[in-house]
């Protein structure tokens, strides 16, 4: 029995090592490149066109510089840079911005994006625009409430002075009424008509005094109300949205790459098993055991390289480390069994079917976007796709999510493995569709140099 060149030569072992690293390279390169894009939005350049030179407009520019790469340019240059894709966003500060703001008028900034250059970049910058708008609104609210608070306190002080003046005037009017009353009594003995007139004056003075008292009382109420208003306005600038609700993350995932990891880890093992069929294609039944053992060993090597590699290369911290290794092993052998049965029974056609299944599962497994956002067709097939089960299991191992579905998904993948292996071993025969060679095989001994 001849020894396999794949297992007995250094070139064969080099090929095996290279294929065993395919899943790791696939996952590590992509996840590493986009591990935390939202944490690096400050790297995207922003062109700022400032048509106003007031203090408030300069403050806006400084606030933008704290979180972004800001380039101060003219309007023409900004438009040119945006259309060429050199900047991600264009911000225009209008003329008289500071003057209008100081008078309590809001003059909005203009934000210009170009989704045609890069759609995802435009989506990311929309989040930046919303953050800038929220920051400016908070600053305006703080300024407005501070001004209102100061005005209320000044009005409160003035109303206090008014109340004091009215109280003094009330006291003087009472003295005047008393004097007029005495004068009326003295004049009564002298002249009845004069006494009657003085009495009317006294009564009028008393009425004025009573009205003064009521006015002073009202002024005191105004003073008390304005004081309460000033005290109520004082804490308002410290109000923030968290006072109106609490957000609770049950199984938090802190990075974009960690959220995509279940999808790419499952996908990369499928790709690895598919590439392995290039080194170990289907053959006759006599060497089936050797092919199965060799390809299974290669699949397990891919799992070990992938799991160990992503833990070392990427800042990935599985919540359940042992489950992480176990889940990847189950997924690896399940994919191995499926693709081996396709390669053994259908040859090159089996590889094509494996690629088609990969494409369908990429769209229907829900590895990136929630399935309710997908089309009805993919929503319908989603629960029945093996990649769906795999993604759910890796999500559980990494973050603890979808715990109620764990054992059901384990059983499905295990059943898929057993069924595929049983078909490969137990059902004889095959229908291999191998593509014709591009060039005719030259059987002559070509030793020309």
Summarize the structure.
By secondary structure, this protein is mainly α. 67% of the residues lie in helices and 4% in strands.
Question: What does this molecule look like?
Answer:
InterPro entries: ABC2_TM (IPR013525), Phage_infect_YhgE_C (IPR017501), T7SS_ABC-Transporter (IPR051328). Pfam families: ABC2_membrane_3 (PF12698). It is a multi-pass membrane protein. The chain crosses the membrane at residues 12-35, 260-283, 295-316, 322-342, 349-369. The chain has three domains: 5-34 and 255-426, no CATH class; 40-117, abc type-2 transporter like domain (abc type-2 transporter like fold); 144-240. It is built from 15 helices and four strands. Strand 1, helix 4 and strand 2 (69-72) form a beta-alpha-beta unit. The protein is mainly α and 449 residues long. Strands 2-1-3-4 form a four-stranded mixed β-sheet, sandwiched between helices.
């Amino acid at each position: 029995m001849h020894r396999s060149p794949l297992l007995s030569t250094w070139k064969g072992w080099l090929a095996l090592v290279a294929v065993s690293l395919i899943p790791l390279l696939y996952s590590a390169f992509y996840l590493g490149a986009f591990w935390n894009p939202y944490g690096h939005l400050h790297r995207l350049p922003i062109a700022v066109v400032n048509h106003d030179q007031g203090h408030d407009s300069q403050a806006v520019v400084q606030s933008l510089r704290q979180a972004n790469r800001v380039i101060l340019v003219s309007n023409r240059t900004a438009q040119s840079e945006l259309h060429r894709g050199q900047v991600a966003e264009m911000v225009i500060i209008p003329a008289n911005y500071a003057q209008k703001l100081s008078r309590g008028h809001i003059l909005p900034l203009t934000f210009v994006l170009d989704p045609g250059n890069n759609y995802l970049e435009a989506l990311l910058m929309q989040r930046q625009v919303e953050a800038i708008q929220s920051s400016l609104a908070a600053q305006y609210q703080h300024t407005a409430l501070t001004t209102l608070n100061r005005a209320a306190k000044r009005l409160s002080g003035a109303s206090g002075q008014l109340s004091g003046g009215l109280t003094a005037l009330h006291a003087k009017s009472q003295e005047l009424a008393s004097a007029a009353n005495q004068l009326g009594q003295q004049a009564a003995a002298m002249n009845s008509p004069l006494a009657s007139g003085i009495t009317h004056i006294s009564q009028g003075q008393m009425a004025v005094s009573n009205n003064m008292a009521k006015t002073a009382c009202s002024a005191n109420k105004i003073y008390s109300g304005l004081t309460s208003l000033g005290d109520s306005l004082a804490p308002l600038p410290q109000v923030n949205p968290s006072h109106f609700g609490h957000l609770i993350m049950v199984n938090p995932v802190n990075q974009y790459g960690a959220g995509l990891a279940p999808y790419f880890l499952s996908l990369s093992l499928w790709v690895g098993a598919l590439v392995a069929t290039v080194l170990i294609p289907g053959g006759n039944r006599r060497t089936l055991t050797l092919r199965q053992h060799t390809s299974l060993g290669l699949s397990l090597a891919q799992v070990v390289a992938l799991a160990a590699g992503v833990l070392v290369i990427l800042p990935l911290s599985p919540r359940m480390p042992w489950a992480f290794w176990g889940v990847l092993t189950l997924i690896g052998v399940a994919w191995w069994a499926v693709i081996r049965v396709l390669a053994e029974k259908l040859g090159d056609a089996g590889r094509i079917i494996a690629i088609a299944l990969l494409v369908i599962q990429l769209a229907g497994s829900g590895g990136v976007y929630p399935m309710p956002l997908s089309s009805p067709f993919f929503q319908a097939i989603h629960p029945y796709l093996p990649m769906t089960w795999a993604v759910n299991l890796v999500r559980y191992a990494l973050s603890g999510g979808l715990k109620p579905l764990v054992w059901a998904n384990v059983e499905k993948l295990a059943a898929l493995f057993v069924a595929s292996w049983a078909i490969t071993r137990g059902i004889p025969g095959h229908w291999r569709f191998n593509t014709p060679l591009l060039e005719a095989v030259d059987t002559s001994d070509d030793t020309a140099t």
